[in-house]
Amino acid sequence: MRADAVLKKEEEAIITLMKERALGRCREAQRAYYECVRGRTLSVAWACREDARAMSACLNAHTNAATLARMKTQWAEAGKPSIEDRSRPPRCFDED
Question: Where is the composition biased (Basic and acidic residues) (predicted)?
Fold first, then answer.
């Protein structure tokens, strides 16, 4: 078994944590998008296109396969600590 091999349940928890971290790191892009869409209906599609692309690019940069692989490796190397309480992630996931 590889050192960074994880169970499906463990991988799902790591993915959830990865997504939560991405949301935190992309807060400014989200804020810009949400400010743009506030009060709009149909015009959102073209008026907020650039903000939506910026938010999407930020989220994609922090939720890709390489990030997941790195997090799985860090977690496995740290001895697979509990990640049940996502409000206090293991130290192996401290901000890079």
Answer: 82-96
Torsion, Cα of 78, 82, 86, 90 (10° steps): -30
SS3 labels along 16-50: HHHHHHHHHHCHHHHHHHHHHHCCCCCCHHHHCHH
Cβ-contact 18, 66 below 8 angstroms: no
Mean pLDDT estimate for the chain:
86
**Burial degree of 74 (CB within 10 A; 0-12, 13-18, 19+):** middle
Here the tokens at position 3 are: 């050192």
Q: Alpha-carbon Rg of the chain, whole angstroms? A: 17
Sequence-distant (6+) residues with CB within 8 A of 88 are none
What is the pTM for the complete model shown?
0.76
CA dist 85 and 96 (Å) reads 20
Domain boundaries of the chain, sorted by first residue:
8-77
